[in-house]
Amino acid sequence: MSVEALTHPLLRGAAHGFLGRKGGVSTGDLAGLNVSYSEDDPALTSENRVRAVEAVLPGGTLLTCYQIHSPDVVTVAEPWTDADRPKADALVTNRPGIVLGVLTADCAPVLFYDATAGVVGAAHAGWKGAFTGVTDATIAAMEALGASRANIAAVVGPCIAQKSYEVDAAFEARFFEQASENERFFRAGREGHVWFDLEGYVASRLRDASLAKVGMLGEDTYAQEDRFYSFRRATHRKEPGYGRQISLIGLPA
Fold it and tell me: 17, 163, 205, 242: which is deepest, by most CB within 10 A?
């Protein structure tokens, strides 16, 4: 089975792909293209990462962060080793041949591209990172490299959909305190609980940052077991591990 790399026309010109679990060598609960070292045989994870990069930008150099659900962004000038990767949740670069990668398993991956300036970015936007401004920080870091909000395109990739994302009232209250209009991202559920639209919220943050070109793939990681890893699905099933998929973007050399 070949690697499935979802693309979006707004990012045309950049080498990119939102990958799932198809096309990998991991087995068992993690079967497929698991790219996380934390739960898998390192040899299998390494092979999966090679396959992921080859599916998007053959010969590219993959760089990822040690993700901590923060708004922190790293500007990439030179490659680093995996052991030395910085703690952050987004990366930007204008260097051809470097492939920026973010790992997710229900959180929203966001890929950015300014074709005019030749700048790309990738952000891991879980609810906490999105709430505290990881996408805003990514845009600002791209601007520091010469990008413009008028030219930056951003696409929200596969993540947990509202129909699959039940949260409690305290979670909802946090968003209402941030802005009353955030009410539109919640739908009433059972007593004391609501359903949260993470994808819609992230896309709204991008539009509020004055990006005119914002896309969404509309793919629910929780509901598509054959295509995507999902932390919440694995937790509900009491599975020992849940795996991660990767989203990639780079500038061809």
Answer: 17
